[in-house]
Amino acid sequence: MRKFTVNKIEAVAGSELTITLKNVGTLPKAAMGHNLVVLKKGANPMAFSQAAAAAAATEYIPAAMKDQILAATKLLGPKEEDSITFTVPSEPGEYVYL
Question: Residue 97 carries which DSSP code?
């Protein structure tokens, strides 16, 4: 089961935000790689997740839905980490990450 240790991030609109993802697992990247995707406001996380599950060739980033992504890490293998830095949108609300 996938689980983040942080389940909510609060940030000020217009500020720069850096998120670091660490894959603490031990299974090979091909079997259990992980990434983090922050979706734009209004994106459908269920539809994105379903499309991502079928997008192994593009590291689980569905090409047809790239326009719904605010920021994303690369796909990480065991003990790898990656950071993303982006400007927090000016429109208040909830932005789903998966």
Answer: B
